[in-house]
Amino acid sequence: MKKVLSDVLVLGAGAAGLAAASKARELGAPNVVLLDEKEEPGGVLPQCIHPGFGLHYLKEDLTGPEFAIRLFERTRSLGVKVFNSTYAMELLAHKGRRVARAVTPEGITEFHSKTVIFATGAREKNSFEIGIVGHRPAGVYTAGEAQTMMDLHGAMPGQEAVIIGSGDVGLIMARRLALQGADVKAVVEMLPYSGGLARNVQQCLFDFGIPLYLSHKATKILGKRRVKAVEIVKVGDRLEEKPGTEFEMRCDTIIVSAGLTPRVELLEKAGARMDPATRSVAVNELLETSIPRVFAAGNALTINDLVDYAAMQGEAAAKSAAGLTQSRRLSSDRWRPVVKGRNTRLVVPQYVSGRREVSFYGRVMQPEEDVYLKVPEIEVEFRQLRVKPAEMLTFTITSKEFRKLKEGKITVTIEPKQ
Amino acid sequence: MNQETGKLRMICIVCPLGCELEMETGREPKQIVNIKGSRCFKGIEYAAREVADPRRVLMAVVKVRDGHLPVVSVKTDEPIPKRMLLDAVKAISRIEMEAPVKAGDIVIGNLMGTGARVVATNNMRKAD
Asked: Are strands B80-81 and B55-56 parallel, antiparallel or unpaired?
């Protein structure tokens, strides 16, 4: 069997993986190998043709393909070895090394490495996962599939579309379809608020007069060979269907935009500790999983609002991995759990040492106004004008602030104004 | 828009924060006299432009002959009037380029008299 050796092995050449591979080289890791399942690097970026990428990370407003080109040119110029059309199937351990067994165009190859960074991204939830019944006619796509069709292959998914779920990719596709002359009948959202960024509701729906049905649920797809209509019903506060409110909306295309799930099956199978809140692996502040010398970044770690955050997590993981190529152990820290308090759905990282500065990413459960994000153990608080489940919270706690921490856990909690 | 009170609400689209702007417009319909809700000066600039002359950057795809994929992504290099978006997409759809294409290549020099250029945003190599 073919064997490839490296110091840092990065899985996935999307924003997080490209940033990780480049950063690892810049920090002196001699041998960095990057695997990607697609023929072209960039992950989902090449099909995200709208602007809005890179404002934080590159201080420029770029489209997805432009952002990917920038990242890939840096990766290439730094001498990262890139394997395209390569799919990692299994993560193993062998003589103190981590081994990813992968299918490549040359057959099965074992990639042996001191460290591994999972930047494997996320997959979309499909219509079966959100409980829609009916036949399986043509014309049902996830938002990402519709985006691949339109923006990479120049094909229209249909002419009369209903979008189920108001995640950002669904909103972006509503606009793309409208611009391309399709009739976008509605975006249907089960919750009483949008799952996407407010600016996308404005510029993708309201700009084009596309109605947003909040607190409505699609229950059934009608049509045998091709989608003919979708059945929609109003839902109440506890998402219960309200009898007598059902109606049909005619359409030939249904686009499901019901959110993303991190792709970390390989890590789960290898025994990494999981966090049910992020549906991914739990990590410490070095972005290291419970499997030593294996790291996670980008949407594989937690679903990010911005590609910039994914790239920054890639760099953070690379910093940890590159540090390990010089010494055997990363740190002798004792890890304290990060506990979720009031109105806190998820927090990454899940463990901290209290000895260094940490960038946190979090999400709330319910929208609220004028609240404080608090870490009571160290008396830190950040005022938030608004918090929404669709909008990621980011905050940094410095090592100085951590000095107040005594024994035990830290809590991240959202508290109303006193 | 509520015509009677001269009040206007919109969500700022400049950055992902999505500030909810509340404005009062003056006697001149295209003038703002008061604005609330913006977390930075860009929101105020955006609101002024949005009331006077709403514009958007347009993105689309252009057909490519002999490319490794059938279309390449493009954008306008400056925002164009919002009311022209749909016609502009039709104009862009009629273009056909030949591979190879480099990101930054100019596809249309002056889009429908707006002065905006349409530029490629991705590379497209010749099909093998």
From this structure: antiparallel
